[in-house]
Amino acid sequence: MAEPAQEAPDTGAVWSAQDTTPGEIEEALRHLLQEQHARDGAAAPARVLNLVVVLDRDWRGEIMNRLEQVGRYHASRTILCAVEPGRTTIDASVVMTMEGDTRPGELMLTRERVMLTVGEKHLPRLDTIVDPVVVTDLPTVVWSPHGHAEAVDALLQLAQVVLIDSVNEPDPESALRRAKELSEGAYVVDLAWLRTTPWRERVAATFDPPRFRDELLHIDSVTVRHRPQSGVAGLLFIGWLASRLGWGSGSLLAAQGAVRGTVKAHRHDVTLALEPMAEQEVPGLAGIEIGTSSGMSISLDRGPGGLVASRRDRKGREQSWTVLGASRGEGGILGEGIRQALLRDPTYRGALDCGEALLR
Amino acid sequence: MAVAETDRGEQENPLVEGLERVPIHPTTLVIFGGTGDLAHRKLLPAIYNLAHEGALPERFNLIAIARSDIPHDDYRAMARESIEKYSRRPPDEQVLEKLLGQVSYVPGSFDDDSVFSRVNDQLDKIDKEAGVAFNRVFYLSTAPSFFALIVEKLGEQGLHKHGEAEVRVVIEKPFGTRLDEAQKLNRQVLSVLDESQVYRIDHYLGKETVQNVLAFRFANGMFEPIWNRNFIDYVQITAAEDIGIGRRAGYYDSAGALRDLVQNHMLQLLSLLCMEPPVTFDADEVRDEKVKVLHAVAPPPPDAVVRGRYTAGMAEGKEAVGYLEEEGVPEDSRTETYVALRLEVDNWRWAGVPIYLRTGKRLARKVTEIAVTLKPVPHLAFQGAGSVGVQPNQVILTVQPNEGVSISLGAKIPGTRMRIRPVNMEFLYGTSFLSQSPEAYERLITDAMRGDPTLFTRNDEVEAQWRIIDPILENWEKDGELAEYPAGSAGPEEADSIIAPGQRWRAI
């Protein structure tokens, strides 16, 4: 039964209920918004996107901590669906929070966080529970960091975007397969892909001066070093190069602790290698090396204050410099994932297809 | 994807597709006036934030030039202090340290040839060590009196071109203080540089919400059909500040409100609001359309201009001194701190629509907005008493502080009678986007390094602005009348005299 609304002086309005229904939760949200507006006309609800998170109840603290770290990329309404084994009823709480300090004459943003505690039996039709609670007409993003594939499949009825982290899947093959499945019904934002962004930007920049662009046709080797659990990020990077440069068929095979293979470029083969680096602690890539048949090579490695770039030219002369940039951290990556839900990257699908094809 | 060719016969870079940050050619940025207030508060923090986000060119160096005779390390310490104090985010120590490692300092005065020859040596050394001809961006963050001199010296030392690499010169405002001065400066600058190399900065154009004026007009089919004299009654552009002049008396007293805000920022807003849709958003297509608007604006007659100066009053709940009592203001100052004017854009779309501009210091509130008032409906069926009745619709584009768009509509008051009152439909930038707007200088420095001049003012544009402003200044030299308004008010009452019957100033 619903409990009467309460007020928390610092965090805004709160409401909670046990054994409740989606209709009651929606009504509570409406009332809280009206009360908030009546109390403070300068408070304006953020209306960017809905984020639906499906998670194991025991790990909800960890997920909430991660969401706290996304900085300014908070969703407008976050709906956390905490799955508790054996539960048959729905408990719910709603918290409205205000962002930042108020200044005279300026508006203050408010956001809503809904926590639903549900059972496994609710998951196949989780969409019917969440649907009344999302803000209509806003993009809805689903993130399910602890699996619960059936809940994600159900939520695809109302979500336009699925946020995944392919490095959390047991192996690259199943990660890419799942990403492709999801891509059929929604726009996929893959945190593993976003971790490769600075590397892709730098490689694109290296070959951007007109005198180096021709070298793109002569790439004959690519080595990607990665955290042992982040092989899929390396695969997506190679898939990106393959799709952008029009490389043809090829294959990768596990050998001596690494994954190696070749792919057909226009007139030659490109040697590929994915090498796990045990010392890399953070998810994602550790380094990249690209060589060309004309004798040029470039490499990028993590370093203090950015990526350390090295280039060896055709005559064997070497240079090294730092490409400035701060690490975004895992909080920053998740925030970037939420931001990317509003954009469309036309190159991810090509990278995914090519990466998956290399594993067949 | 095959590797295609560009229009210039170069291979296209297929890796750029889909990236939010397009690669920028290796660049050395040279700041003249590297110890000045602008460099201290805006440029160095902006450069740090670009470095933090990985948005600087892959290879980047910064050379600062100023008169203070200090070693590199002292300049780096000074730059660190600026960044730590004014950056919009706390600096990452490793990124900051690496960035400062790419900063060098050349002391000397701008009329000294040896300074330019030392800069030349430094630039050549950077290129030689990298094995790449870096693009060069010279940023003139100095007193305006040095602009022509520095450009002349760049030409004399051969620094205005650099083989295959690009050389660009960013010139801060003000670009002249009168039309003839702006024309002379343009001639001097363009005797050394090609117009495509010149980036006259107006940082207002770097603001997201100013750029949003174009998005609002040209990305929404519902507004453009009514954006003309048939539907619009009048337009008001307001740039009000609640603060006084602070410690800027030296600059402000020689500039005044007209030069400080109207000649550049407010005429830019007017151009964006009134321009025809460009065929593409290429730099020159957009600027061509803006210049056409400025050419269609005649200088206002004397009775369409009011200037004022604040006297003592109340601001932010405290007593505030008048302009003449501000520190550093000469006793016999005749500088205006407020100006209101009525302009018309004499073209097919806008003829007969008054466009009111007003700006001032120490006004009641800080707000920058464009208010477009539509003509009233032709027939009022609702004459019910007991309400304010039907008001003309207004479209308000707020640039600051609550960035967004608001549309006032007539709506029925709940009840048994047909009574109408205006209600607002609002879009607020902050509620609908996740990203924080980058500082205007971050955007503009990036654009200058990328070679995109869309948000910079072209030579004919700046002269067209002065053609509107110059006769007002000339008239003021003859007629010294200066209205007064108390600090914290909405401005002088005399401003009402330029408003047409049936129209009124919006409350500040």
Enumerate the spans of chain B where pLDDT stays under 50 for 5 or more consecutive residues.
none
Mean of pLDDT of chain B: 91
Q: What proportion of the residues of chain B form beta strands (DSSP E)?
A: 15-25%
Biggest beta sheet summary of chain A: 10 strands, mixed
Helix content of chain A: 25-40%
Intertermini distance of chain A: 53 Å
If you average the pLDDT of chain A, what whole number results? 89
Q: Helix count of chain A, per DSSP?
A: 11
Biggest sheet strand line-up of chain B = 16-15-14-13-7-12-11-8-17
Number of helices of chain B: 12
Unreliable spans of chain A are 1-11
- How are helices and strands ordered from N to C of chain A? EEHEEHEEEHEHEHEHHHEHEEEEEEEHH
The radius of gyration over CA of chain B amounts to 25 Å
Q: What is the terminal separation of chain B in angstroms?
A: 56 Å
Largest sheet of chain B: 9 strands, mixed
Structural class of chain A: alpha/beta
Radius of gyration of chain A: 24 Å
- Tell me the total number of β-strands of chain B: 17
Proportion of residues in extended strands of chain A: 25-35%
The most extensive interface between chains reads:
A-B, 60 and 50 residues
H/E element sequence of chain B: EHEHHEHEHEHEHEHHEEEEEEEEEHHHE
